[in-house]
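Contributing new complexes? Match this layout with NA7.
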Amino acid sequence: MTAAKGSSPAMNPRADFDAIVVGAGFAGMYMLHRLRGLGLKTRVIEAGQDVGGTWYWNRYPGARCDGESMFYSYSFSDALQQEWTWTERYAAQPEILAYARHVADRFDLRRDIAFDTRVTAATFDENQRLWRVTTHRGEVLTAPFCIMGTGNLSTTNLPEIDGLATFRGATYHTGTWPHHEVDFASRRVGVIGTGSSAIQAIPMIARSAAHLTVFQRTANYAVPAWNHPLTAEEVAEVKAHYAELREKQRWTFSHNMFEPAARSALEVSEAERQAEYERRWREGGLGFTSAFTDIQYSDAANQTAADFVRAKIRAVVKDPATAELLCPKIIIGCKRLCVDTGYFETYNRDNVSLVDVSSTPITRIAPEGPVIGETIHAVDALVFATGFDAMTGTLLAIDITTSEGNSLRDKWRDGPTCYLGLAMAGLPNLFIITGPGSPSVFTNMIPTIEHHVDFIADAIADMRRSGRTRIEVDGAAESAWVQHVADLAEPSLRPSCNSWYVGANIPGKPRVFMPYMGGVPAYRRHCIEVVENGYRGFNLS
Ligand code: NA7
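Output block (do not edit by hand):
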C-alpha cells in the first residue's frame, strides 16, 4: 500500500493524507464519507477483507442483531434509508453485511480503504504535527489526524485452558467464524459460554449436531425476540415517517425506540407489575428492562424483573434440574441482556445437555474434549462463545504513543481514561469513535456512531476554518469526565457485578466501569455545550 496519488492533503502538506481512519465497520465507513465530504484526503485501514467490522467477523450460526433493523441502520442519508429494505424485525448477520456492502458501493467507499491490513502502531510526531501509522506489512502512513473506528467488541477472548492445543477436534470462536459453511451434522459439538453469541448459536447448532453439550459458567437472562418478517406495510409506514422517527430516536435514552419507564417497580401493585412485565415480554427484545425506572438501581426492583424471567424459564424447560441451572442468579442487567429465539426450548431436546462449570471449572482440554473434575466430555468440535476483550482490547493492541513519550498503554494501565469517550489528554489529534466514557455499548450502535462521527468531522471542519491544526484534551477536563462517568455508575447495581462492562471477563484487566450511564440525551447535551463553549475541555492551537 502506498499513499494514494491525486489530490494532496489539505491540512498538512508533509503528510500522505489528511486523516487515517482505523477500521471499516459502520464507524469507519461513515467517518470516511464525512471526511470526504469535507474534501479531506482520507485513508481507511481495515484488517478484514471487506467492510462490515463486527458483522464481517461474527458469522456464527444464528448471528443476528438484537436492535430492530429499521433503526439499527444509518440515518445520515434519506435516499439510503428509503432505498434499502430490511426483511426482518431483527436482521440476521448476512443481511447486515449485505447492507454494509451496499453502503460501501453506493458511496464508492472501497477506493479509499486498504483491506487485509492491520494497524500495529501509531505515533504522533510533535514536530511534524502528524501521526505515523504503521501496518503489519511494515508500511508507514502519515496524516495530521488519526481516528479509531476499531469497535468495542472486536478483539476476541479465547480463555487460556491447559491442553487446548492437544484437542483432536475442530475449534471455533464465534467472533472469528470461518467464511465457509461449518457442517455440524453427525458431530458432537461443545459450546463454551452462554452470553449473547452462545444464546443465538446454541439453538441453531442443536438442530444440526448429533449432540450438543453446553458448558455454562454463568446462567444469563434472555428475553424473546419474537422476530418476524417485516410486512410491506410495516416498512412503508416507517419509511413514510423516517425523518421524524429518526429525530425522535436521536433523543431517546439509548437510541432505541423503547417505551421509556415511567414508574418504580416498587410503587405499583404486584398485579400491575406482572402485567407490565408480561406486556414487555410479549413485545420482546431489550426494552424489557425499561419496564420500570429502578430495575438497574434497586435490588428489590431488580429481583421482581429477575423473578419474572426465572418463572418463564421454569415454565419452558421441562427437566427441573436443568431449569434451575438455567435460572440466572445474578442481577438482571449485570451482564448484557440477551435476546433469544428458542434458546430455553433447546434444552428440551434429547440431543442437548447442559454442564455446569461454575463450581468446577473446565480444568483442561483433553484430546477428546473438555475435562470437568474427573469427567471428559468427548466432542468432535468445540465452539468458544467466550466473548471479547471489550472496549479497550483492540485499542491497546495498537502501540499508540507520541514523540514526547506518552503512551496509551501507560495511560490506561489502571483502566481507560477518555474525555467524552472521544479523545484523550496527551494524545493530540487522535479520536476514538464510541470509546470508553461514552454511551456506546449501552445504546443502539449505529446512531451512536453517527453522533460521534459527526462530532469529530465537525471539529475537524471547525479547526480547518479557524486555521488550527492541533486539538488535545485538557487533563483536568478528562479527569472530571472520568469522575462524572464513575459517579453516574455508582448508584447503579451494574458496577458491583462481574461483566465485560467492568472488564471482569479478562484476567488481570483493571476493574473500571467503562460506559457512560447517563443516557443519550444528557450525553448529547454535554457534547453540544462543549462545542458551543469553544470546545470546552479541549486545547486547540
Ligand atoms: P459474552 O457476553 O462476554 O459471553 C461470554 C460467555 O463465555 C459467558 O457466558 C462467559 O461466562 C463464558 N466464558 C468465558 N470464559 C469462560 C471459561 N473459561 N469457561 C467457561 N465459560 C467461559 O460474549 P458474547 O460474544 O456472547 O457477547 C458479547 C456481546 O456481543 C454481547 O454482550 C452483545 O453486546 C453482543 P461468564 O459470564 O464470564 O461466567
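Reviewers usually confirm one structural detail per submission. For this one: Residues 1-6 have pLDDT under 50 and may be disordered.
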